[in-house]
Amino acid sequence: MLSSNTLSYIFFVKYLYSVIDGSPTDVVVVWLIKDYGLTSEECVISLKKKNGRSFMKKLTAAQMC
Q1: pTM (2 decimals)?
Q2: CA 52 → CA 13, 47, 49, distances in Å?
Q3: Which residues contact 55 (CB under 8 A, 6 or more apart)?
Q4: Where are the strands (E) in 1-65, listed by range?
């Protein structure tokens, strides 16, 4: 059975792809915030634009719903 963190991760990945689909941004890495000592209710995404610049953004569960 999948853990709640795994389910959250799957949900977040689906959300992420639905948000950036068609945008000029490539997904490089998706992390669970848990790896950063934060709560599993938050996720961090690392996005790399096609021009080579990258940035990170944190989304909470409330922002994902």
Answers
A1: 0.22
A2: 22, 10, 6
A3: 46, 47, 49
A4: 25-32, 42-49, 54-60
Q: How many domains does the chain have?
A: 1
Residue 51 tokens read as 């021009």
Distance CA 2, CA 8 (A): 10
DSSP 39: -
Dihedral pair phi/psi, residue 23, rounded to 5°: -90, 160
Which residues form the domain of 32? 4-64
Which stretches in the chain have pLDDT values below 70?
1-65
